[in-house]
Amino acid sequence: DKPYRYANLEVHPHHPHLIVSVLENHTVDNPADITNYLALINTKSKTVSPLLTGADFYALPKFSPDGTRLAWNQWYHPDMPWGGQIFVADVIVSDDQESLSTSNAKHIAGEKGKVATGYPSWANNNTLLFTSDESGYSNPWKFDVARGKASPIFAQPIAQDFAEPMWSLSMFPYVVTDTAG
User: Fold this and answer.
1) Residue 3 burial by Cβ neighbours in a 10 Å radius (0-12, 13-18, 19+)
2) Contact 139/154 with Cβ under 8 angstroms?
3) Cis check: omega of the bond before 78, within 30 degrees of 0
4) If pLDDT is split at 50, 70 and 90, which confidence band does 86 have?
5) Is 162:173 a contact under the CB 8 Å cutoff?
6) Which of 19, 64, 123, 173 is the most buried (most CB within 10 A)?
């Protein structure tokens, strides 16, 4: 058995053999030596390769409905998810459609050690939803890709948490019911 653990598998909407996953590598099973990154899994070629590395933790990779963008959450020790940051990048599928890469990664919300963001999901190809505790409470926010701007959904923050800390990689505090538009 290989010492790899996978979570948050996200299938590309047009190339279902390409899957992005959180990968935790326990090759050296000492807590200080365990690495975490986003990996690309190709089910046709049966290969796994790193896609995004550098942060201490990754969670919730999400393709836009048209598959041209990837959003994800990342953070660094010791912040855990309380310093979670949301990023969005363009997705480039190789000419032979056997691989993909990202470019133009943009940090859209969250600040290490100060503002926690989490739970990214696409409302449509141009709008990413997520939670942010910038107001002191975890409220819903949105990022407009065309404008390159993140903003709260409510005109005034609500003194209530709309999400729990990200203790589980599969739980979501909300659901998008329509991706039209």
Assistant:
1) exposed
2) yes
3) yes
4) very high
5) yes
6) 64
pLDDT in tens, 152-166: 999 999 999 998 877
Residue 171 CA neighbour count, 13 Å, CB half: 8
Residue type, 157: P
Query: pLDDT of 124-176, one tens digit each?
Result: 999 999 999 999 999 999 999 999 999 999 999 999 999 887 777 778 888 88
Render the chain in DSSP notation, one character per residue.
---EEEEEEEE-SS-TTEEEEEEEE-SS-SGGG-EEEEEEEETTTTEEEEEE-SSSEEEEEEE-TTSSEEEEEEE-TTTGGGG-EEEEEEEEE-TTSS-EEEEEEEEEE-BTTTB-EEEEEEEETTEEEEEE-TTSS-EEEEEETTTTEEEESSSS--SS-SS----STT--S--------
Give every strand in the sheet of 85-93, ordered side by side: 57-63, 69-75, 85-93, 100-109
Evaluate whether 120 touches 108 at the Cβ level (below 8 Å). no
Determine the Cα–Cα distance for residues 20 and 86; give it in Å rounded to an integer: 16
Residue type, 12: H
What local confidence, expressed as pLDDT, does residue 179 receive?
Answer: 59
pTM of the shown model? 0.93
> By the 8 A CB rule, do 62 and 73 touch?
no
